[in-house]
């Protein structure tokens, strides 16, 4: 018989308002971690609430209290991670900021779990408009937030002119590394590639 991992202990506590659910944060985080592991292990099409619950060490009820379906669970997790985003670099120069951004992004995209999950979700997005919309928003929000801060700081320092086209700047900053690491899934980056990419991107932004 499966026990509910979130059942309260026998000690007295304040009565919860009727209809409210007590959602432990450690259980929520365990479920989120299990989603990534399941996606990497079996892919979106084969993953199930049962498998996620087993991996998280909770009952299915604990999952359904938080998300009403597999789709909503995956959409929430993907969006939440992307919203956390990347740290906005603050090195004091445009090239320094770009280089730090590329180092962090490159490591994240090469992570074994990410390298399996992203292509699978991309394929699923081609069949599911909700996943497509969530991925586009998540990826854009995460990258756009960091890129806009890099551009704004470079403008304040006078390294680039003010009033750049935001969409074009974002494409220039984020496009090359994403293309190589996610779209064509090329081999490990050669030595010196990030330095060359950093310099080329900085020069392109200065030329806009």
What's the structural blueprint in terms of helices and strands?
Elements: H1 25-42, H2 49-56, H3 60-64, H4 70-84, H5 94-110, H6 112-125, H7 129-157, H8 166-183, H9 193-207
Describe this structure in words.
The radius of gyration is 21 Å and the shape is elongated. It has helices at 25-42, 49-56, 60-64, 70-84, 94-110, 112-125, 129-157, 166-183, 193-207. Helix 4 (70-84) runs parallel beside helix 7 and helix 5 (94-110) packs across helix 9 (193-207). The chain has nine helices and no strands. It has 208 residues and is an all-alpha fold. It is 67% helix and 0% strand.
What's the gyration radius in Å?
21 Å
For the largest beta-sheet, the strand count, sense and barrel status come to:
none
Compute the number of strand runs. Answer: 0
Low-confidence stretches: 7-20
In short:
By secondary structure, the chain is mainly α. The chain has helices at residues 25-42, 49-56, 60-64, 70-84, 94-110, 112-125, 129-157, 166-183, 193-207.
What attributes does this structure have?
elongated; single chain; 208 residues; 0% strand; mainly alpha
């Amino acid at each position: 018989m499966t026990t509910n991992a979130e059942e309260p202990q026998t000690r007295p506590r304040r009565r919860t308002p009727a209809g409210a659910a007590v959602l432990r944060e450690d259980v929520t985080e365990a479920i989120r971690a299990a989603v990534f592991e399941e996606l990497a292990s079996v892919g979106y099409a084969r993953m199930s609430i049962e498998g996620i619950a087993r991996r998280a060490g909770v009952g299915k009820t604990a999952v359904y209290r938080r998300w009403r379906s597999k789709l909503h669970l995956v959409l929430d997790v993907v969006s939440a991670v992307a919203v956390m985003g990347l740290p906005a670099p603050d090195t004091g120069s445009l090239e320094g900021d770009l280089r730090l951004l590329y180092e962090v992004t490159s490591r994240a995209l090469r992570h074994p779990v990410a390298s399996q999950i992203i292509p699978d979700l991309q394929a699923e997005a081609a069949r599911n408009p909700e996943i497509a919309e969530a991925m586009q928003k998540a990826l854009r929000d995460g990258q756009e937030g960091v890129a806009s801060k890099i551009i704004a700081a470079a403008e304040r320092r006078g390294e680039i002119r003010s009033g750049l086209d935001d969409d074009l700047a974002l494409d220039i900053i984020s496009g090359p590394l994403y293309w190589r690491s996610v779209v064509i899934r090329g081999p490990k980056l050669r030595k010196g590639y990030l330095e060359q990419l950093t310099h080329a991107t900085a020069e392109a932004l200065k030329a806009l």
